[in-house]
Amino acid sequence: MTLAELEKNLDVKFPKKFHEIYETGAMEWVEVGHEKFNENREHYLNNPKAFLMLSCDAEPAFFDEIPDYIDGLNELIEWHEEDMDEKLDEKYRLIPFAMNGGGDFYCFLYEKGAGEPKVIMFVHDTCDLPDVIGKDFDEFLYVMMLSVVSYAVDDDDFSELEGEQWKNNLDYLLPEYKSIITSKNYNELADIYWSLIFEEAEIWK
Questions:
Q1: Which residues contact 162 (CB under 8 A, 6 or more apart)?
Q2: CA 89 to chain centre
Q3: What is the reported pLDDT for 100?
Q4: In degrees to the nearest 10, what's the CA dihedral of 161, 164, 168, 171?
Q5: What pLDDT, on a 0 to 100 scale, did the predictor assign at position 126?
Q6: Per residue in 108-144, is it b (16+ CB within 10 Å) or e — as a string?
Q7: Which residues contact 198 (CB under 8 A, 6 or more apart)?
Q8: pLDDT in tens, 139-182
Q9: What pLDDT is attached to residue 62?
């Protein structure tokens, strides 16, 4: 499924930076779907420009699986509304596009009348408000690249940070974010990641 097909099916527009990265061919692996990915697994794993094929906190969803992600998210929203007697504010729309290792959704948070969506994490096993992981997709990418470093520091394995995929994903960042990452050592960057404090998204009413 192409990005254009996905957006048409969902009646939504993904962020500008998402489109820019997609146009480079870096999202080929999420475009092809599970079956074709598994048939050519090594090709996609080793593609030097592959988008977020890194050890970070987010695994992008295959485009053709995003409708299933939406169904799963809608179930969680319904359970929350029943348990907490509050509704998702109708000015918001959530589109999940990735998941972390704990089964929590990274979502674009679209707000009526606003511009580019924020990125939030919708945690599946709590009634807490979602955290805003990025005020936009650019900031989200920066946070994810910091998470790659933090995992490398925790595992004492920095080989991934010397590879072409790492370098190419750095190029997807805004200059100010790339400058931070390239000007500090790995321990300093891990400290930045673990000291991040995220604001909460007031999505319920």
A1: none
A2: 22
A3: 92
A4: 60
A5: 79
A6: bbbeeeeebbbbbbbbeeeeeebbbbbebbbbbbbbb
A7: 131, 132, 133
A8: 999 999 999 999 999 999 999 999 999 999 999 999 999 999 99
A9: 96
